[in-house]
Amino acid sequence: MEPALTRAWFEEQNRMTPEELRTVTFPLSRLGRRGYEEESVEEFLREVQDEFVRLVNDRTTLWQEVQRLRRRVLAEKPDGGPQVLFGEADAHVHAVRILSTAQVTADRYVADAKAYSSQLTEEARLRRDEIMQEAQQYSDMLLEDAHARASEAAVSALNGAAHPQSHHERQAAQAELAYLRTYSDVYRAHLRAYTEGILRGIEDWERKEAASLSEAAQAVPIAGAPAIDGNAYMHH
Amino acid sequence: MPRSANWRRRRRGAGSLDVARLRESFAHVAVHGDELPLFFYSDLFIKHPEVRDMFPVSMAAQRGHLVDALVKIVSQVDSVDDLTAFLQGLGRDHRKFGAVAAHYDAVGASLLATLEYFSGPAWTPEVAADWKAAYELIGSVMTAAASADEQLAPPWWRGTVVAHERASFDVSVLSVQPEPRMDYLPGQSVAIESPSRPRIWRYYSMANAPRRDGLLEFHIRLIDGGALSMALTSSTVAGTELKLGPPVGALTLSNPVSGRDLLLVAGSTGLAPLKAILDQLTALPQPPKVHLFFGARTADGLYDLDSLEKMAAQYSWLTVTPAVSADPKFAGETGSLPDVVARHGEWSGHDAYIAGPTEMVQEVAARLASVGMAQDHIHIEDFGWSQP
């Protein structure tokens, strides 16, 4: 009888099993000395395990092939009659293998597509977070700046009240106040424009999404609607 | 349990099933890894092409499920009650895929052919008889559970989307009308299939207790590359018809209620089952004190905070604490959920219900156990036999 591809057989022959490779551990290196990088060792072991599984599977395939050929030899008639090269059982196993290969290929395509879409959504999400964060920081900065200016103005106004000001000083303070007002007007306008820009972006996004969703259901252009070309022609 | 009695009788009968021999035989073939389920499904689809349509395009996950189920069955083949419950659940669950009794014979034949192929010379008549007997038992328990279930529930529900709201950048709230009406316990989930992703089922929890109009609310978070979540958050609109599997899961209040106060911990859309439980509590004459922690990475992720805070304002027994883990400038609690929960007190006298990303759920559960909460007072999602 052929040596069975069994765990018992592996043990009997003192052979290594994929299971053994998966569970093997190494003692830690002594303090102060660097051992192998754990990750590399593990990665290597994973590769060895895959290879091992491949080998075991190849062996089974070969064993099946030997059995098939053996059956053929045994079945061979002494009168040398016509041979069936491929029995029904063999044809089935081949069909199974072909379908399995096709399935694995399909699985890889799906996995690749999934990885790609995962990458795209992740990048889009990171970019979105970045934009939101930038907008947040920008508006925080504007607010802080405006607060600082306002308290500065308040302080100088108080100081101005406490100490009698020269005409020159008063003029300078008024100029400063006028400047601050303009400055805060400009900032407010800036912040408003920026926020409105973001809102427009969001609305546009919503509109596009709704449009793409209803695209399939959209009717063909209504007959009798004014033809732009015709109007243009009449004006000539 | 009549099933287990049957199982015992058959196991004793004529020594038809040698457990040790079955396990050894499985250990021999398990060495072949993914080749085993690959051969099995190809064999099945060649002999019965009509079965192929019950499966998704990519079979990679499916092959893993088959091997996991086989490993579980072989390892528990002598602990009858656990295995029986597992197989009954599996049998009921397979109704939504359209499995009928005839499929069980086809699957059995392909399973035996696969085991024979990989066993090589170790496939003796005795081993073949063991597997045949084992599969007949598996098949009979599953089909019996499935046909008993036929009296109680449809194989699946048609779920018509009546509204799709975007609650935040990444979270959509779907309102779904099931047909016929679905009865379930608050905290349970159903598997959902979308017409744009045929044969791909994912579990989602209902976010409300059963209502008079029967509407179900689902919270769907867009997962990067997530096959179903992308379809549900983007191409699903009012009118889309989903398929819903039967309600499953044990993240439910005990009946009658324990009398202990409740600690609810929700990460992201893990809020859904806990909100259903809150919904259930509002109908009680004397609800226990409830402290709900709702965590997300950023403030934008706290998609349902407004409605929770409204509830907290309305019900004096409810406290809601939002927490954000990746934005130190957030005005409320910041840090990881286990830390935030631990900071708020000593919970050992409470019943805890935890839902959210697997890692977060486990961390919170471990933290609560370490501060002395009894293991059976900590409730987490457990689909048991079904595979999300």
Structure in words:
- The complex is a heterodimer of chains A (236) and B (388).
- Chain A has 236 residues and is mainly α.
- Among the domains of chain A are: 1-26 and 39-75, no CATH class; 125-212.
- In chain A, 77% of the residues lie in helices and 0% in strands.
- In chain A, helix 4 packs antiparallel against helix 5.
- With 388 residues, chain B is of the alpha/beta class.
- Chain B folds into three domains: 2-150, Orthogonal Bundle (Globin-like), CATH 1.10.490; 157-244, Translation factors (Elongation Factor Tu (Ef-tu), domain 3, Beta Barrel); 262-380, 3-Layer(aba) Sandwich (Rossmann fold).
- Chain B has helices at residues 2-12, 19-30, 35-47, 60-75, 80-93, 101-119, 125-150, 227-235, 271-282, 305-314, 337-343, 358-370; strands at residues 157-166, 171-179, 189-193, 201-205, 216-221, 241-244, 262-267, 290-296, 318-324, 333-334, 351-355, 378-380.
- In chain B, the strands form two sheets. Chain B has a six-stranded antiparallel sheet with strand order 4-3-6-1-2-5.
- In chain B, helix 12 (358-370) links the parallel strand 11 (351-355) and strand 12 (378-380).
- In chain B, helix 3 crosses helix 4 (60-75), helix 5 crosses helix 7 and helix 6 packs antiparallel against helix 7.
- Chain B starts with a helix and ends in an 8-residue tail after the last strand.
- Residues 1-15 and 384-388 of chain B have low confidence and may be disordered.
- The chains are: A mainly alpha (236), B alpha/beta (388).
- Chain A binds chain B through residues 1-2, 4-8, 17-19, 53, 56-57, 60, 63-64, 92-93, 95-97, 99-100, 103-104, 106-107, 110-111, 114-115, 117-119, 121-122, 125, 128-129, 132, 213, and chain B through 24, 27-28, 31-33, 35, 38-39, 41-43, 45-46, 57-60, 117-118, 120-122, 169-170, 222, 224-225, 227, 230, 235, 237, 298, 300.
